[in-house]
């Protein structure tokens, strides 16, 4: 007659300890792997969003004339720059080869519409940010406190034919902030023919002009990573470890 030997209490404790250590190690490895995956995904998503925004701007600016473009900082503190210029493209023309309109006598572009790009905080910033408001950055060169700004593109069709470049004062009427991601109210504004939210969760947009060269500096933040370690809304994110920077340089036509 044989008897099976049971585990002693010390042996059970040893097995449980080893199991706990192995479980903790596996959890740590999985957690670290997911953290690195989220970091890479956040970085790639931010970079793609910025590249898309600059691609939109480059496509429009390459058709702009150096004498028919304006640029300034938005008057309301806490926002980015506004860049506006005339376009000779007629979106009602179905034939792409005929869309760029020229004066038949002179061959010069016949300006049809204004295109406006501007970076602005949504009115309901705390709703977009997930519950916190951002202070106004005291830096006179830009606002780097609020990483949830919107890049808006508007096509404005005024009554003038051909159109003349709006003054710095006139463009202010079109630099309006949406409440949130719903931009239907902006699209319904008088003389606004088209309105698009090009990108959200951007930090800054700054334009610099050198003769016929326009350089645009765009910044965005890996928000999920920054939220975990930084007091968001109360510090400058201009050069934080989580801030991405991309530049666009366009040589404007004469």
- Supply the number of helical segments: 5
Give the number of domains.
Answer: 1
Report the mean per-residue pLDDT as an integer. Answer: 87
CA-atom Rg in angstroms: 26 Å
Oligomer: single chain
Please tally the β strands and state the result: 7
Structure report:
The structure is a single chain. This protein is α+β, with helices and mostly antiparallel strands. The chain has one domain. The chain is 29% helix and 26% strand. It has helices at residues 9-61, 125-129, 168-171, 184-187, 223-229; strands spanning 69-73, 81-87, 113-120, 149-156, 192-210, 213-221, 243-251. It has a seven-stranded antiparallel β-sheet with strand order 1-2-3-4-5-6-7. The termini are far apart.
Can you give me a brief rundown of this structure?
With 254 residues, this protein is an alpha+beta fold. The protein has one domain.
What is the topological layout?
Layout (H helix, E strand, L loop, with lengths): L8 H53 L7 E5 L7 E7 L25 E8 L4 H5 L19 E8 L11 H4 L12 H4 L4 E19 L2 E9 L1 H7 L13 E9 L3
Antiparallel strand pairs: 1-2, 2-3, 3-4, 4-5, 5-6, 6-7
Essential attributes:
254 residues, single chain, 29% helix, alpha+beta
